[in-house]
């Protein structure tokens, strides 16, 4: 019996300034599809969100998108997904995305990506779930964040176990290996 797996990807609704961010998003979408892991994401067709979804679709992958009504025009809601859900609020969006995933991957992004990541990290820290959280640190994008987490631990505002709740990887190949281990 095949076990159906889904991976939630948080990422920017903008492409960022480096081509490597878009390349990483496309490679992530292709990798998920190659392993028949469903992409769960914010349902946008712009920025890295659009890149990861289009790549997953082009490779024959399943896509599950969730977008709140108020962001539909701004993020250009991508209706041609395997599953397309429109929510009333951002809170509902985040909950639906998380509840439909077995693991979380964070690609480069802005405040929204940080909000999503810190919410699931906090939930894990307080024992609400055990889902793995991966950060794809393309060209060191997330290094300042990882340093901030180390600083929070050093300053006594978080337990050292917080560091182990995020697995940072530098390439899609490393992400693939880590996801295989986590989803086995």
UniProtKB/TrEMBL annotation:
Class of enzymatic activity (EC top level): hydrolase
InterPro entries: LOG, LOG_fam
Gene3D superfamilies documented for this protein: 3.40.50.450
Catalytic activity field: AMP + H2O = D-ribose 5-phosphate + adenine
Record key words, sorted: Cytokinin biosynthesis, Hydrolase
E.C. designation(s): 3.2.2.n1
Organism superkingdom: Bacteria
Short name of one Pfam family: Lysine_decarbox
Family: Belongs to the LOG family.
Protein name, UniProt field: Cytokinin riboside 5'-monophosphate phosphoribohydrolase
Origin species: Thioclava arctica
């Amino acid at each position: 019996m095949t076990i159906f797996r889904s991976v939630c990807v948080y990422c920017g609704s903008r492409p960022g300034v480096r081509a490597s961010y878009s390349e990483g998003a496309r490679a992530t979408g292709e990798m998920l599809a190659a392993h028949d892991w469903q992409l769960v994401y914010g349902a946008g067709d712009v920025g890295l969100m659009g890149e990861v979804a289009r790549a997953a679709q082009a490779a024959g992958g399943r896509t599950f998108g969730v977008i709140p009504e108020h962001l539909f025009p701004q993020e250009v809601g991508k209706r041609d997904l395997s599953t397309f859900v429109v929510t009333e609020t951002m809170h509902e969006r985040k909950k639906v995305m998380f509840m439909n995933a077995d693991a979380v991957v964070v690609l480069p992004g802005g405040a929204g990506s940080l909000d999503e990541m810190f919410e699931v990290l906090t939930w894990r820290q307080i024992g609400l779930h055990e889902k793995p959280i991966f950060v794809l640190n393309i060209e060191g994008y997330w290094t300042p964040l990882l340093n901030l987490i180390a600083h929070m631990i050093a300053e006594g505002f978080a337990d050292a176990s917080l560091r182990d709740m995020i697995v940072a990887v530098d390439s899609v190949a490393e992400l693939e290996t880590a996801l295989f281990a986590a989803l086995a």
